[in-house]
Amino acid sequence: MDLSGKVAVVTGAGRGLGRAYAEALAAAGAAVVVNDVDADAAAQVVEAITAGGGAARSVVAPVGSAEVADRLVDTAVKEFGRIDVMVTNAGILRDRVLWKMTDDDFDAVIGVHLRGTFTCARAAAIRMREQGTGGRLILISSPAGQRGNFGQTNYAAAKAGIVAMARTWAMELARANVTVNAVVPVAATEMTKTIPVFAPVIEESERTGKPFPEWLRKDEGLGTVEDVAGLVVFLASDASAGVTGQAIGIGGDRLALWSHPAEKAVAFADGGWTAETIAASWQSGVGAEPETYGIPAPKVPAEDAQGV
Questions:
Q1: What are 204-243's pLDDT values in tens digits?
Q2: Which residues form the Ketoreductase domain (predicted)?
Q3: Is 293 a residue of the active site?
Q4: pTM of the prediction?
């Protein structure tokens, strides 16, 4: 993939997945604006990119406000002449069950993930439409947004909203040749280390350099952050010109296309439904095969289960 001449902005690019995205885009030839709230982390990413012969600048600021979004796009244009790719990756966690989640917990996560995606995508879309040469909006979602996850009301809601925005913006920006897709990544990060079943395997790999086992890379679709970055590079490239409005999962050895929500079962009643007729027909009708919810528990092979 040759991204020479393209300019990308990656939010939350100081570490983890965001850093992997920024470095992969730069390695493919794109100039990159590295955004993070940690100045030292952002500087390290810029240094790594430039040391490898790439071009990068940093913007240290928390996403969410229109002012920061405009600053990111303005930096790309001022430093590199244009913007072609916006990757909205920045995020935070404030995990708590519903009855313990505060307003601040909810607002903080929604502000960074959902509002931050909205303001950054809007600023990029305005500039891309002005340039008249198309562009790429790559929005980072999560399996929690697709299926829900215990203790993550705020995070799951934000990530679900991001996929909904991708589908909406894909329609709105089609005439401007701006594609919009949501990436649903699964990778070994500081967050996944908190999942008990994954923690021992991740820690062993970090300690010994031993690759993740096949069941983790294939069955669970969990690998390194670098395993995810190829999808972002593809979506930033000309090769993905016909791909838009999609939610695409990637992790380890697994690449997947998430389905859009659709009616699973339908029933009709002449004259409409009452509570009584719904109750009478539910278990044998539309409710015969209810949908699952929540991220499924990992299935650890017996030979790897010891100590997990």
A1: 888 888 888 898 899 889 999 999 999 999 999 999 999 9
A2: 6-189
A3: no
A4: 0.94
